[in-house]
Known about the structure:
With 214 residues, the protein is an alpha/beta fold. Helix content is 50%, strand content 15%. The protein has 9 helices and 8 strands. The chain has helices at 13-24, 31-40, 44-55, 61-74, 89-101, 116-124, 165-179, 181-188, 201-213; strands at 3-6, 27-30, 80-83, 108-113, 126-129, 135-137, 157-158, 192-196. Strands 2-3-1-4-8 form a 5-stranded parallel β-sheet. A 3-stranded antiparallel β-sheet has the order 6-5-7. Helix 1 (13-24) crosses helix 9 (201-213), helix 2 (31-40) packs across helix 3 (44-55) and helix 4 (61-74) packs parallel to helix 5. The longest helix has 15 residues, at 165-179. The radius of gyration is 17 Å and the shape is globular. Bound molecules: adenosine-5'-diphosphate (2 copies) and zinc ion (ZN).
Amino acid sequence: MNIILMGPPGAGKGTQARNLVETRGMVQLSTGDMLREAKDSGTEMGKIVAEVMAKGQLVTDEIVIGLIKEKLETVKANGFIFDGFPRTLAQADALGKLLEGEGQTLDAVIEMEVDDAALVQRITARSTCAHCGEVYNDITKPIPADGKCTVCGGTEFKRRADDNEESLKTRLMEYYKKTSPLIGYYYAKGMLTKIDGLADIDTVQGEIAAVLHK
Length: 214
Ligand code: ADP
Ligand code: ADP
Ligand code: ZN
């Protein structure tokens, strides 16, 4: 089963994708994570995307489609979770063709609905474990008092350079202008299910599980 988790920055896509990896053995394909890896390892592509990402703008379709193509051709999985991809209609079309080429289907698109005020709070309070990538939140999911990651015991945590209010404004604008049209696109294909992303993490997890059971 292949699914897309869709929603604005901070909606909870990464958090829920990690849950699905753990509970169902699916494979998470996060273009944001792939781009950050490229940036951190200092590749040519990483250098090109760093500035664009810091500003909160979208990286070119060509680059992200290339990243997804490579994964689909090389990684075998009993289900992919697309997290943060597709973000434009061109990416959505490309994904459809790539999956078809691999003899696969797209089975569900889950839109996580949240309001903008909640996003500012979530994004500015976000951190992740530097070792395993577990996602934390100063308010809703704090790092344990002993300073150790609950998943791996790691003690180093990172905040993203683009998790500030200024960059979030641009990211939200990009979402509404370029990504939100995909909601109509997948609705018309009969693939879309909306869920309440404002509920707590476990409740959202339950709602996603219910969609996948159908
Ligand atoms: P968030 O989890 O806050 O939604 P991501 O980690 O998915 O953010 O993405 C971080 C940044 O990486 C984006 O602001 C954008 O610059 C770039 N990016 C990630 N995925 C894509 C994509 N599919 N198309 C274009 N740019 C992308
Ligand atoms: P996205 O990948 O969509 O950008 P994340 O999964 O990184 O979103 O979550 C953004 C922030 O909000 C993180 O700090 C995370 O711990 C927190 N968060 C995620 N889901 C919820 C939820 N349902 N309720 C409260 N906080 C949440
Ligand atoms: Zn960890």
